[in-house]
């Protein structure tokens, strides 16, 4: 009887473990867009049903996106004196420039911020936007504008 209880508990543990593992794998397979806290959205209405949104994202969000881009690419960076993947982010930024991860960080931030700004502004989006980056610097807010049909 004792072995039966152990086997039963072990079976329940395995079921829970594999379900959690499947959920983790599914979240990795499907791109889950995280919510981005935007600081401000300015809407400028143009002619011919066009609108221009200027979106400002907090500097903390931009730093977090830069760190995420670093963690994603750190295994491909080689610096003399360090093993691959073990180079500190500050060292990489010192050698190659702080803007090395900006493009990937912007690509990570723009879809979530665009979605939040569209909800906040209440505009009906009917086309793909034209994106212009206004400000993208370390320690400052990330500002970009989007011109689109409404």
Describe this structure as you would to a colleague.
The chain has 150 residues and is an alpha+beta fold. It is built from 4 helices and 4 strands, in the order αββαααββ. It has helices at residues 2-29, 59-73, 89-96, 102-121, and strands at residues 38-46, 50-57, 130-135, 142-149. A 4-stranded antiparallel β-sheet has the order 1-2-4-3. A hairpin with a 6-residue loop joins strand 3 and strand 4 (142-149). Helix 2 (59-73) packs across helix 4.
Descriptive terms for the model:
about 150 residues; alpha+beta; four-stranded antiparallel beta sheet; about 45% helix; flat
Radius of gyration, whole Å: 22 Å
Structural class by helix and strand composition: alpha+beta
The helical percent reads 40-55%
Number of strands: 4
Major sheet: arrangement of strands? 1-2-4-3
The DSSP helix count reads 4
What's the multimeric state? single chain
Q: What overall geometry do the principal axes of the alpha carbons give?
A: flat
Q: What's the N-to-C terminus distance?
A: 70 Å
Q: What are the segments in which pLDDT stays under 50 over at least 5 consecutive residues?
A: 24-32
Secondary-structure element string: HEEHHHEE
Main sheet record: 4 strands, antiparallel
Sheet-strand content, in percent, reads 15-25%
Mean pLDDT, nearest integer?
79
Give the secondary structure arrangement, pairings included:
Blueprint: H1 2-29, E1 38-46, E2 50-57, H2 59-73, H3 89-96, H4 102-121, E3 130-135, E4 142-149
Antiparallel strand pairs: 1-2, 2-4, 3-4
Helix pairs in contact: 2-4
């Amino acid at each position: 009887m004792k072995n039966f209880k152990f086997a039963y508990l072990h079976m329940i543990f395995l079921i829970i473990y594999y379900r959690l593992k499947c959920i983790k794998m599914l979240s990795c397979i499907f791109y889950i867009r995280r919510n981005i806290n935007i600081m401000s959205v300015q809407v400028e209405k143009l002619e011919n049903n066009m609108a221009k949104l200027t979106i400002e994202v907090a500097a903390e969000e931009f730093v977090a996106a830069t760190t995420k881009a670093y963690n994603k690419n750190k295994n491909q960076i080689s610096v003399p004196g360090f093993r691959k993947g073990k180079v500190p982010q500050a060292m990489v930024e010192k050698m190659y420039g702080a803007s090395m991860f900006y493009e990937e960080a912007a690509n990570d931030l723009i879809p979530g911020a665009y979605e939040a700004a569209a909800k906040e502004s209440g505009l009906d989006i009917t086309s793909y936007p034209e994106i212009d980056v206004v400000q993208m610097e370390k320690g400052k807010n990330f500002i970009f504008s989007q011109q689109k049909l409404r």
